[in-house]
UniProtKB/TrEMBL annotation:
GTP binds at residues 105-112, 188-192, 246-249. GO terms for biological process: SRP-dependent cotranslational protein targeting to membrane. Composed of three domains: the N-terminal N domain, which is responsible for interactions with the ribosome, the central G domain, which binds GTP, and the C-terminal M domain, which binds the RNA and the signal sequence of the RNC. It is an enzyme of class 3 (hydrolase). It comes from the Bacteria. It is found in: Cell inner membrane; Cytoplasm. This is Signal recognition particle protein. Coiled coil: none annotated. It is a peripheral membrane protein. The keyword Hydrolase applies. The gene is ffh. It catalyses: GTP + H2O = GDP + phosphate + H(+). Keywords: Cytoplasm, GTP-binding, Hydrolase, Nucleotide-binding, Ribonucleoprotein, RNA-binding, Signal recognition particle.
Length: 443
């Protein structure tokens, strides 16, 4: 246990404020994590430098490694950048009906699918009458595709009339909606595979014709470094009001969302999470921040550590250990603290770079959560004297304790051996400067 524990907590220190060195070391990792998550380079650079400013000099949380604390600061910064923790963004549908929503984006980004998804959502949740219309005159199948998706959504689509331009269809959609008492019209535009002036011009024309309340840029979450340029160009021409990131169900970590938010400052309104009609989620900044960082969930580890570790006990323990004492009561305190943090298994699940094999190894060596509970039960089955003086524990006492804890004698022996090893390590550490290996432990 001692070795593994110290592995988990070996960077625990008790300095007063985060140093530049600590911050920079952690930020190097963050930079890599963000780039791996496909956040565009300029966004990464800008973000990291802002976090650096904020983190250096921040008061250290004693029980947490400086690197982990920086990650927490980074995480909070990401959440803020992504729009904060408040209520999810809503579409603004006020004004005289019919209110238009214009969908823009590159071809294949998911505009048509998202059009139908949003239509369903507005119809169901806002109880509004919604009409969808495809302005995609380039691909013959595109209009039919929207009609089919709309049917799945239970929302009417504008009848297809051949030979009209996109602007003409948009006009027809608005007047049909006005005549038929629709509240909302969602206009699905044609995209191109690359940014080009003709597509932008057409979309701008449709926008000036229909005066949409919302112009949503639909983008594939798997877009990499192009995300910034795409968002910037669309936003310059179209006065976007929000972003929708599709394919969040894919393998990507969603860095494109961050890049696009960073360059446009626009709210992310929805995330597409499947090809199906219901695959649309309200945006959650905290969840996306966690995903972009991709650190297992180191942030909640830091939160747990900060909240759960009992500083007073740690301090008292440190004093005892300085005198070379570490009895079974102290061991129990450690076991309880570990359990509070979700057990060793829980902690490892939160740590990056822990693979299945390593977890299995730890479990096999008896430090899974159940083992922690049994070990605690063993100690609780001892008398106070026994706990304070483990030397008292001879065969008959061990038998009684094993029976009391519902385990076998070998398990009692293993615990005692572990205790001796830990006490040993403590003694050595106590002679040195600090106390590696103990949560919150410091002199
Ligand atoms: P458009 O060219 O922008 O209209 O894009 P489409 O709506 O036609 O979508 C292109 C492809 O992406 C289709 O096969 C969709 O089913 C798929 N798609 C759209 N949104 C999502 C999503 O959120 N998740 C997944 N897995 N696929 C999506
Ligand atoms: Mg389409």
């Amino acid at each position: 246990l001692s070795e593994r524990l110290s592995g988990v907590f070996d960077r625990i220190t008790g300095r007063g404020a985060l140093s530049e060195k600590d911050v920079d070391a952690a930020l190097r990792e963050i930079r890599v994590a963000l780039l791996e998550a496909d956040v565009a380079l300029p966004a990464v650079k800008d973000f990291v430098s802002k976090v650096r400013e904020k983190a250096v000099g921040e008061t250290v949380i004693r029980s947490v490694a400086p690197g982990q604390q920086v990650i927490k600061i980074v995480h909070d910064g990401l959440v803020e950048l992504l729009g904060g923790e408040g209520e999810p963004e809503r579409l603004s549908l006020e004004g005289e009906p019919p209110v238009a929503i214009l969908m823009a984006g590159l071809q294949g980004s998911g505009k048509t699918t998202t059009t139908a998804k949003i239509a369903k959502r507005i119809a169901e949740r806002e109880k509004k009458k919604v009409l969808v219309a495809s302005l995609d005159t380039r691909r013959p199948a595109a209009m039919e595709q929207l009609a089919q998706m709309a049917e799945k959504a239970g929302v009417p689509s504008l009848p297809i009339v051949a030979g009209q331009t996109a602007v003409e269809i948009a006009r027809r959609a608005m007047s049909a909606a006005r005549l038929q008492g629709f509240d909302v019209v969602i206009l699905d535009t044609a995209g191109r595979t690359t940014l080009d002036e003709e597509m932008m011009g057409e979309a701008a024309k449709i926008a000036s014709e229909t005066r949409p309340r919302e112009i949503l840029l639909v983008a594939d979450a798997l877009t990499g470094q192009d995300a910034v340029e795409t968002a910037k160009r669309f936003n310059e021409r179209l006065k976007l009001t929000g972003l929708v990131l599709t394919r969040m169900d894919g393998d990507g970590r969603g860095g494109a969302a961050l890049s696009m938010r960073w360059v446009t400052g626009l709210p992310i309104k929805f995330l597409g999470t499947s090809e199906k009609i219901d695959g649309l989620d309200a945006f959650d900044a905290k969840r996306l921040a966690g995903r972009i960082l991709g650190r297992g969930d180191i942030v909640s580890l830091v939160e747990k550590a900060a909240a759960e570790i009992d500083h007073d006990k740690a301090e008292a323990l440190a004093k005892k250990m300085a005198k070379g004492k570490f009895d079974l009561n102290d061991l129990r305190d450690q076991l309880v603290q570990l359990q509070k943090m979700g057990g060793l298994g829980g902690i490892m699940g939160l740590l990056p770079g822990m693979n299945k094999q390593m977890k299995a190894q730890a479990a096999a060596s008896g430090f899974d959560d159940k083992a922690l509970k049994r070990q605690e039960a063993i100690i609780l089955s001892m008398t106070p004297q026994e706990r304070a003086k483990p030397d008292l524990l001879k065969a008959s006492r061990k038998k009684r304790i094993a029976a009391g804890a519902g385990v076998g004698v070998p398990e009692v022996n293993r615990l005692l051996k572990m205790h001796i090893q830990m006490a040993d390590m403590m003694k050595r550490a106590g002679k040195g400067k600090g106390l590696p290996g103990m949560p919150g432990g410091r002199m």
